[in-house]
Amino acid sequence: MSTNCLIVFTRYxxxxxxxxxxxxxLGEKGATNLHRQMAEHTLANIKELQKVYPLSTxxxxxxxxxxxxxxxxxxxxxxxxxxxxDLGWRITSAFHTAFNNGMESVAIIGTDCPKLNxxxxxxxxDHLSRYDLVIGPATDGGYYLIGLRRLVPExxxxxxxxxxxxxxxxxxxxxxxxxxxxxxxxxxxxDRPEDISEVLGYGINLxxxxxx
Length: 212
Prior knowledge:
By secondary structure, the protein is of the alpha/beta class. The chain is 33% helix and 18% strand. It has helices at 23-50, 66-73, 87-100, 118-127, 166-176, and strands spanning 4-11, 56-62, 78-81, 105-109, 133-137, 143-148, 181-183. The chain has a seven-stranded mixed β-sheet with strand order 3-2-1-4-6-5-7, sandwiched between helices. Helix 1 (23-50) packs across helix 4.
């Protein structure tokens, strides 16, 4: 088994509970369908990478259950419920579990970044052979990927999640801890109506009539 672990944070696609900031533009069904397709797009990239690179994959989810997640995204993946608490605690818990299970390099991503591909994920793990922390900056001031070689819980405390200050605050903490940081290319997340154009050209269907 690989000691490189990629953890994917996502949510089971349920009407009215998924990509809620996109509902005014796409409707409940359209927002849920977009989320579903972006998650499937993310997992397809991971599976391509696993053909040539040793990588264990876990999906940490909210909503649904393990059976529903497996029916949706397939087998060969470890499914875990996300921990209770704010995003910082959920990230900390995910890293803690992975390192306790013998993983040596761990990265966490979401499913909101259609431009995140296999090459960039591989680059993240290559960086983790030389750096303490790897960050994929998001253009909204957050990050789309964070990777570590050991648990550093301080990185996830007193962060105003969902704001444009997340990356800046995280890097300030990393500097105070003397962590060696590597950066990936900046990419855009799809969180708001003005972000929807980011999915064009990635095989994602914006036809709102598409069945879930």
